[in-house]
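Write out the 3D structure for:
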Amino acid sequence: MNILIIGPSWVGDSVMAQSLYIQLKKEDPNCNIDVVSPPWTAPIMERMPQVAKNISSPFLHGDIKLLSRNRFGKSLMKFNYDRSIILTNSFKSALVPYFAKIPVRTGWLGEFRYNVAAIIEVLKGSKRLAKFSYDENTEKNDFVFILACNTIHTGKGMKAAPNAKLDDGLIDLVIVKKTSRLKLLLLFPKIFSGKHISSPLVQYQQVNSFSIFPESDSGLNIDGELIGNTPLSVTVKAGLIKVLV
């Protein structure tokens, strides 16, 4: 098997990538591994016995140059690669194996993975029936999501709670109830600018406390970590911790 690796741009990452090359050789001792990498990592590649050939990348970090990537990819077709592994997390890095018509391409979504996961959840359209209370209000409904924030941003650049402040003693709730998938997909891009809170689909509340009692208990996602399960009750303890900045 002929394998093309799109190598990292940084020296430290290039050193760590050798563990992948060792594993590939363990799985298939006869595989041929070529690595596309920037010129400054070439001396490292040359010292790795697993790497058959180091191919110097003609692109500087951050270069897009679609036409040049197309030509470079086509120039690699003569090597008949069966598989490519992209170790960088940018879309443009995946273009060279694509233009080289390598049939199996494995990449890393990087920061975009959070957005992809969110879109998948929207498309699922799963029922989330729950009784939801905040301050003195209670309602039962089918919710797409209930997001509780004490800072403006969540995920990767999402301005989910544009009015949030760390020290105001309040939790900002972003509440979206069940609606069509199309409306949700059109709403999704607005969350990066904070304009979503002006949509009639979004209920935005700043509260001292809230509770969620779903019909079917589920895991709690707290800052990207699954910690505990519903039901959940939260109360803000304002000014409990002093932070020196």
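The helical segments are 11-16, 18-27, 42-46, 66-75, 95-99, 112-124, 181-187.
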